[in-house]
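User: Inorganic polyphosphate kinase. Structure?
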Amino acid sequence: MTLAPRAVLVHRTTEYEELVARHGTHGQAAFFLSSRGRDLAEVAERHHRAHRALAEVAAAVPPTWRHARVERSDLDRFLFAPEDVVVVVGQDGLVANVAKYLAGQPVIGVDGDPGRNPGVLVRHRAADAAALLRGVSTAGADELTMVEAVADDTQRLVALNEIYLGAVGHQTARYRLGLEGDGGVVEAQASSGVLVGTGTGATGWLRSVWQERGSALRLPRPEEDRLLWFVREAWPSPATGTSLVAGELAAAGRLCLTVESERLVAFGDGVEGDALQLTWGQTVRVGRCEQRLRLVTGVPGRR
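Assistant: Predicted structure:
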């Protein structure tokens, strides 16, 4: 028997909810903000807009479908199924948060607060949810490239935007860096870490590093099988070099980093709490991931 699709609504706790949870009541939260020259009404209004969007999307789920909700902090404990249709209601970053837990399920990004988000990944409005869900099986979708890091002890990390490798607290990281299949050329480095990003990440952290560096490398497109990597603030010394500080990785390319610090970490999309823990002598390889994010682009039959 074929299971009916399940709509999984992904959302995050609002700033208002976090403030009330921290201070106990609406009044105490309002007093806290007013003492700092801010008005809780603005935060509360964004909260109400987000919940109205979530309620509108929930109401649009076809009656024959199953449905579930998952908050961002629970994503690592939620079991996604092959038949799921994932609806992210919120910010662009929430799509990146959920991407690593999926395996080809279609994702519909709904902007929970239009006008405040760039809309790179949350491209739709709550009013479009019904049509998108009904036509998701035939809807067009972008297949967005992802990046992965695989350690020699089988730890694996996947990200949509970028993977950062470095020391905890962004202190000096020491390691040996090289490109797989590059004739064994390896350089010992001391730096603020290494960033490897995708075309989707080229709208965020990767772009800021690229722009600050004045790099001549061409930024990849979100669906392109090409990554860029940058070493942040490499330090020249008698024992460490700065010749391998930027480059691109083709589809099969891998950047190899061997740890020469007591502890380094690798985390994706800015989520430091979900990181690979790397110790002295371990090697991690970073490159394009075979899995992609399938992001629904439009309502079938509409222009």
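The chain has a mean pLDDT of 93. The longest strand covers residues 84-90.
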